TrEMBL record:
It is found in: Cell junction, Tight junction; Lateral cell membrane; Membrane. It comes from the Eukaryota. It comes from Ailuropoda melanoleuca (Giant panda). It is a multi-pass membrane protein. This is Popeye domain-containing protein 1. One of its GO terms (molecular function) is cAMP binding.
Protein backbone atom coordinates (compact mmCIF):
# COMPACT_ATOMS: atom_id res chain seq x y z
CA UNK A 1 0.00 0.00 0.00
CA UNK A 2 1.18 3.46 -0.89
CA UNK A 3 0.60 5.48 2.19
CA UNK A 4 2.96 6.84 4.76
CA UNK A 5 2.54 6.68 8.46
CA UNK A 6 3.93 9.22 10.80
CA UNK A 7 6.80 7.55 12.60
CA UNK A 8 7.68 8.13 16.24
CA UNK A 9 10.94 9.75 15.11
CA UNK A 10 9.03 12.33 13.07
CA UNK A 11 6.80 13.13 16.00
CA UNK A 12 9.79 13.48 18.29
CA UNK A 13 11.44 15.90 15.89
CA UNK A 14 8.28 17.94 15.66
CA UNK A 15 8.02 18.52 19.32
CA UNK A 16 11.52 19.88 19.70
CA UNK A 17 14.20 17.19 19.44
CA UNK A 18 17.25 17.90 17.25
CA UNK A 19 17.37 15.96 14.02
CA UNK A 20 21.15 15.45 14.19
CA UNK A 21 21.16 13.59 17.51
CA UNK A 22 17.67 12.30 16.79
CA UNK A 23 15.95 11.39 20.03
CA UNK A 24 19.03 11.31 22.32
CA UNK A 25 19.31 14.95 23.56
CA UNK A 26 16.11 16.94 24.27
CA UNK A 27 15.94 20.68 23.57
CA UNK A 28 13.99 22.94 25.93
CA UNK A 29 10.90 24.62 24.68
CA UNK A 30 11.22 28.09 23.15
CA UNK A 31 8.37 29.46 25.27
CA UNK A 32 9.66 32.25 27.60
CA UNK A 33 6.42 33.95 28.59
CA UNK A 34 3.80 32.93 31.11
CA UNK A 35 0.50 32.41 29.37
CA UNK A 36 -1.46 31.37 32.42
CA UNK A 37 -0.66 33.39 35.57
CA UNK A 38 -1.53 31.77 38.87
CA UNK A 39 -3.93 33.35 41.27
CA UNK A 40 -2.72 36.04 43.69
CA UNK A 41 -1.45 34.67 47.00
CA UNK A 42 -3.34 35.08 50.23
CA UNK A 43 -3.32 38.42 52.07
CA UNK A 44 -1.02 36.98 54.77
CA UNK A 45 1.75 36.61 52.19
CA UNK A 46 1.54 40.28 51.21
CA UNK A 47 1.39 41.52 54.81
CA UNK A 48 4.57 39.54 55.54
CA UNK A 49 6.37 41.28 52.68
CA UNK A 50 5.13 44.65 53.90
CA UNK A 51 6.83 43.99 57.27
CA UNK A 52 10.03 43.00 55.46
CA UNK A 53 9.93 46.25 53.50
CA UNK A 54 9.35 48.37 56.59
CA UNK A 55 12.30 46.73 58.34
CA UNK A 56 14.64 47.37 55.40
CA UNK A 57 13.74 51.07 55.02
CA UNK A 58 14.23 52.00 58.69
CA UNK A 59 17.01 54.66 58.70
CA UNK A 60 20.25 53.65 60.36
CA UNK A 61 20.37 57.01 62.16
CA UNK A 62 17.47 55.91 64.34
CA UNK A 63 18.62 54.98 67.84
CA UNK A 64 16.74 51.65 67.95
CA UNK A 65 17.28 50.88 64.27
CA UNK A 66 18.69 47.34 64.70
CA UNK A 67 16.04 46.34 67.23
CA UNK A 68 13.23 47.54 64.96
CA UNK A 69 14.80 45.82 61.95
CA UNK A 70 15.03 42.47 63.72
CA UNK A 71 11.50 42.89 65.05
CA UNK A 72 10.07 43.52 61.58
CA UNK A 73 11.96 40.55 60.12
CA UNK A 74 10.70 38.28 62.91
CA UNK A 75 7.09 39.33 62.30
CA UNK A 76 7.51 38.79 58.56
CA UNK A 77 8.97 35.31 59.04
CA UNK A 78 6.12 34.41 61.39
CA UNK A 79 3.52 35.44 58.79
CA UNK A 80 5.39 33.48 56.11
CA UNK A 81 5.17 30.37 58.30
CA UNK A 82 1.44 30.89 58.75
CA UNK A 83 0.97 31.38 55.00
CA UNK A 84 3.09 28.35 54.04
CA UNK A 85 1.34 26.12 56.58
CA UNK A 86 -2.32 27.09 56.25
CA UNK A 87 -2.66 28.36 52.70
CA UNK A 88 0.23 26.92 50.65
CA UNK A 89 0.99 23.62 52.37
CA UNK A 90 4.67 24.04 51.46
CA UNK A 91 6.88 22.25 53.92
CA UNK A 92 10.17 23.67 52.62
CA UNK A 93 8.97 27.29 52.89
CA UNK A 94 7.77 26.66 56.43
CA UNK A 95 11.09 25.07 57.49
CA UNK A 96 13.31 27.80 56.05
CA UNK A 97 11.27 30.60 57.56
CA UNK A 98 11.30 28.82 60.91
CA UNK A 99 15.11 28.90 60.75
CA UNK A 100 15.09 32.60 59.84
CA UNK A 101 12.66 33.30 62.67
CA UNK A 102 14.90 31.55 65.21
CA UNK A 103 17.97 33.52 64.09
CA UNK A 104 16.13 36.85 64.29
CA UNK A 105 14.68 36.09 67.72
CA UNK A 106 18.15 35.22 69.07
CA UNK A 107 19.64 38.43 67.68
CA UNK A 108 16.70 40.49 68.93
CA UNK A 109 17.07 39.02 72.41
CA UNK A 110 20.78 39.91 72.42
CA UNK A 111 20.07 43.50 71.36
CA UNK A 112 17.40 43.90 74.03
CA UNK A 113 19.78 42.50 76.65
CA UNK A 114 22.42 45.09 75.70
CA UNK A 115 19.82 47.86 75.99
CA UNK A 116 18.71 46.82 79.46
CA UNK A 117 18.87 49.62 82.04
CA UNK A 118 22.15 49.53 83.97
CA UNK A 119 21.71 50.18 87.66
CA UNK A 120 24.33 52.47 89.19
CA UNK A 121 24.81 52.49 92.93
CA UNK A 122 23.15 55.45 94.58
CA UNK A 123 26.42 56.53 96.18
CA UNK A 124 28.13 56.66 92.78
CA UNK A 125 25.27 58.23 90.82
CA UNK A 126 26.40 61.74 91.81
CA UNK A 127 29.86 61.49 90.24
CA UNK A 128 28.40 59.74 87.19
CA UNK A 129 25.85 62.50 86.54
CA UNK A 130 28.32 65.31 87.19
CA UNK A 131 31.54 63.97 85.65
CA UNK A 132 30.94 61.07 83.27
CA UNK A 133 27.40 61.39 81.89
CA UNK A 134 28.00 64.84 80.28
CA UNK A 135 30.92 63.24 78.40
CA UNK A 136 28.61 60.46 77.12
CA UNK A 137 30.20 57.62 79.03
CA UNK A 138 27.72 54.70 78.82
CA UNK A 139 26.36 53.45 82.16
CA UNK A 140 27.64 49.93 81.53
CA UNK A 141 31.18 51.23 80.91
CA UNK A 142 31.02 53.33 84.08
CA UNK A 143 29.83 50.28 85.99
CA UNK A 144 32.80 48.29 84.69
CA UNK A 145 35.10 51.12 85.76
CA UNK A 146 33.71 51.27 89.30
CA UNK A 147 32.98 47.56 89.68
CA UNK A 148 36.57 46.34 89.47
CA UNK A 149 39.84 47.05 91.27
CA UNK A 150 38.30 49.85 93.30
CA UNK A 151 36.58 50.28 96.65
CA UNK A 152 34.76 52.87 98.72
CA UNK A 153 36.72 53.91 101.80
CA UNK A 154 35.93 56.11 104.78
CA UNK A 155 37.92 58.69 106.72
CA UNK A 156 36.73 60.22 109.96
CA UNK A 157 37.22 63.89 110.70
CA UNK A 158 40.87 64.63 111.43
CA UNK A 159 42.25 61.46 109.84
CA UNK A 160 44.98 61.78 107.24
CA UNK A 161 44.64 60.73 103.63
CA UNK A 162 48.25 61.61 102.76
CA UNK A 163 51.20 63.04 104.67
CA UNK A 164 53.83 65.16 102.96
CA UNK A 165 57.19 63.47 102.36
CA UNK A 166 55.83 60.20 103.79
CA UNK A 167 52.94 58.81 101.76
CA UNK A 168 53.77 57.31 98.35
CA UNK A 169 51.82 58.65 95.38
CA UNK A 170 52.09 55.41 93.38
CA UNK A 171 49.35 53.43 95.11
CA UNK A 172 45.96 54.92 94.35
CA UNK A 173 43.73 57.49 92.71
CA UNK A 174 40.60 58.71 94.50
CA UNK A 175 37.46 60.78 93.97
CA UNK A 176 35.75 62.34 96.98
CA UNK A 177 32.12 61.21 97.30
CA UNK A 178 31.08 62.88 100.53
CA UNK A 179 32.54 65.37 103.01
CA UNK A 180 35.39 67.85 102.67
CA UNK A 181 39.18 67.55 102.77
CA UNK A 182 41.80 70.16 103.56
CA UNK A 183 45.13 70.42 101.75
CA UNK A 184 48.06 72.04 103.55
CA UNK A 185 51.81 72.45 103.21
CA UNK A 186 53.95 72.57 106.33
CA UNK A 187 50.90 73.33 108.38
CA UNK A 188 49.68 76.19 106.18
CA UNK A 189 46.32 75.87 104.45
CA UNK A 190 46.27 75.74 100.63
CA UNK A 191 42.75 74.83 99.52
CA UNK A 192 39.79 72.50 100.12
CA UNK A 193 38.62 69.44 98.20
CA UNK A 194 34.87 69.00 97.74
CA UNK A 195 32.70 66.08 96.54
CA UNK A 196 33.00 64.96 92.91
CA UNK A 197 36.62 66.15 92.78
CA UNK A 198 39.77 64.07 92.50
CA UNK A 199 41.80 64.00 95.69
CA UNK A 200 45.25 63.32 94.24
CA UNK A 201 44.97 64.22 90.55
CA UNK A 202 48.21 66.31 90.44
CA UNK A 203 50.20 63.43 91.89
CA UNK A 204 48.59 60.97 89.47
CA UNK A 205 49.66 63.02 86.47
CA UNK A 206 53.14 63.83 87.75
CA UNK A 207 53.96 60.19 88.59
CA UNK A 208 53.22 59.00 85.07
CA UNK A 209 56.79 60.06 84.28
CA UNK A 210 58.43 59.75 87.70
CA UNK A 211 57.81 56.77 89.95
CA UNK A 212 58.49 56.47 93.65
CA UNK A 213 57.64 60.04 94.61
CA UNK A 214 56.06 61.17 97.87
CA UNK A 215 53.22 63.58 98.49
CA UNK A 216 54.43 67.17 98.78
CA UNK A 217 51.28 68.20 100.65
CA UNK A 218 49.22 66.88 103.55
CA UNK A 219 45.57 65.97 102.93
CA UNK A 220 43.33 65.66 105.99
CA UNK A 221 39.60 64.94 106.28
CA UNK A 222 37.86 68.11 107.45
CA UNK A 223 34.57 66.19 107.80
CA UNK A 224 33.58 62.56 107.85
CA UNK A 225 34.53 61.60 104.31
CA UNK A 226 33.84 58.76 101.87
CA UNK A 227 35.83 58.40 98.68
CA UNK A 228 36.10 56.04 95.72
CA UNK A 229 39.61 54.63 95.50
CA UNK A 230 41.21 52.84 92.51
CA UNK A 231 44.36 50.78 92.52
CA UNK A 232 46.56 52.93 90.31
CA UNK A 233 48.38 50.07 88.59
CA UNK A 234 45.23 48.13 87.74
CA UNK A 235 43.42 51.29 86.68
CA UNK A 236 46.26 52.10 84.28
CA UNK A 237 46.03 48.66 82.66
CA UNK A 238 42.26 48.98 82.36
CA UNK A 239 42.47 52.41 80.72
CA UNK A 240 45.00 51.08 78.21
CA UNK A 241 42.37 48.59 77.04
CA UNK A 242 39.68 51.32 76.83
CA UNK A 243 41.00 54.19 74.66
CA UNK A 244 37.76 56.18 74.95
CA UNK A 245 37.78 56.04 78.74
CA UNK A 246 41.50 56.82 78.77
CA UNK A 247 40.83 60.12 76.98
CA UNK A 248 37.95 60.86 79.36
CA UNK A 249 40.27 60.42 82.35
CA UNK A 250 42.91 62.65 80.78
CA UNK A 251 40.33 65.39 80.34
CA UNK A 252 38.79 65.02 83.81
CA UNK A 253 42.14 64.95 85.60
CA UNK A 254 43.46 67.92 83.62
CA UNK A 255 40.28 69.85 84.38
CA UNK A 256 40.49 68.96 88.06
CA UNK A 257 44.11 70.12 88.27
CA UNK A 258 43.18 73.41 86.62
CA UNK A 259 40.38 73.92 89.14
CA UNK A 260 42.89 73.34 91.92
CA UNK A 261 45.18 75.96 90.42
CA UNK A 262 42.25 78.37 90.34
CA UNK A 263 41.45 77.64 93.98
CA UNK A 264 45.05 78.49 94.91
CA UNK A 265 44.58 81.93 93.36
CA UNK A 266 41.17 82.27 95.06
CA UNK A 267 41.39 80.85 98.62
CA UNK A 268 37.76 81.85 99.27
CA UNK A 269 36.53 79.32 96.70
CA UNK A 270 33.85 77.19 98.36
CA UNK A 271 31.74 74.25 97.23
CA UNK A 272 29.03 76.42 95.66
CA UNK A 273 31.57 78.46 93.73
CA UNK A 274 33.38 75.30 92.66
CA UNK A 275 30.19 73.97 91.07
CA UNK A 276 29.67 77.23 89.19
CA UNK A 277 33.28 77.31 88.06
CA UNK A 278 32.53 75.06 85.10
CA UNK A 279 30.03 77.57 83.67
CA UNK A 280 31.26 81.01 84.74
CA UNK A 281 34.88 81.91 85.53
CA UNK A 282 35.85 84.64 87.93
CA UNK A 283 38.07 87.55 86.90
CA UNK A 284 40.99 86.10 88.85
CA UNK A 285 40.55 82.80 87.03
CA UNK A 286 40.53 84.44 83.61
CA UNK A 287 43.68 86.41 84.42
CA UNK A 288 45.41 83.23 85.62
CA UNK A 289 44.58 81.34 82.42
CA UNK A 290 45.64 84.34 80.31
CA UNK A 291 48.97 84.48 82.13
CA UNK A 292 49.44 80.76 81.61
CA UNK A 293 48.74 81.00 77.88
CA UNK A 294 50.97 84.07 77.45
CA UNK A 295 53.83 82.43 79.34
CA UNK A 296 53.64 79.34 77.19
CA UNK A 297 53.29 81.30 73.95
CA UNK A 298 56.21 83.64 74.75
CA UNK A 299 58.63 80.75 75.23
CA UNK A 300 60.05 78.49 72.54
CA UNK A 301 59.84 75.59 74.96
CA UNK A 302 56.32 75.15 76.32
CA UNK A 303 57.63 73.34 79.42
CA UNK A 304 59.93 76.25 80.28
CA UNK A 305 57.07 78.69 79.70
CA UNK A 306 54.74 76.82 82.01
CA UNK A 307 57.37 76.51 84.71
CA UNK A 308 57.97 80.25 84.39
CA UNK A 309 54.25 80.85 84.97
CA UNK A 310 54.19 78.47 87.93
CA UNK A 311 57.24 80.09 89.50
CA UNK A 312 55.58 83.48 89.06
CA UNK A 313 52.43 82.22 90.77
CA UNK A 314 54.48 80.58 93.50
CA UNK A 315 56.24 83.85 94.21
CA UNK A 316 52.86 85.27 95.27
CA UNK A 317 52.81 82.74 98.08
CA UNK A 318 55.83 80.59 98.91
CA UNK A 319 53.53 78.14 100.62
CA UNK A 320 51.88 77.15 97.35
CA UNK A 321 55.05 76.25 95.50
CA UNK A 322 55.28 72.48 96.12
CA UNK A 323 51.67 71.87 95.10
CA UNK A 324 51.99 73.86 91.91
CA UNK A 325 55.24 72.21 90.94
CA UNK A 326 53.70 68.81 91.61
CA UNK A 327 50.89 69.58 89.20
CA UNK A 328 52.93 71.31 86.51
CA UNK A 329 53.01 68.30 84.20
CA UNK A 330 49.25 67.90 84.36
CA UNK A 331 48.59 71.60 83.90
CA UNK A 332 50.87 71.60 80.86
CA UNK A 333 48.94 68.80 79.17
CA UNK A 334 45.59 70.42 79.94
CA UNK A 335 46.77 73.81 78.75
CA UNK A 336 47.90 72.27 75.44
CA UNK A 337 44.51 70.58 75.00
CA UNK A 338 42.64 73.80 75.85
CA UNK A 339 44.67 75.82 73.36
Amino acid sequence: MNYTESSPLTQSTAIGFTPELESIIPVPSNETTCENWREIHHLVFHVANIFFTIGLVIPTTLHLHMILLRGMLAIGCTLYIVWATLYRCALDIMIWNSVFLGVNILHLSYLLYKKRPVKIEKELSGIYRRLFEPLRVPPDLFRRLTGQFCMIQTLKKGQTYAAEDKTSVDDRLSILLKGKMKVSYRGHFLHNIYPCAFIDSPEFRSTQMHKGEKFQVTIIADDNCRFLCWSRERLTYFLESEPFLYEIFRYLIGKDITNKLYSLNDPTLNDKKAKKLEHQLSLCTQISMLEMRNSIASSSDSDDGLHQFLRGTASMSSLQGPFLLGSSGAAEDFAEEAS
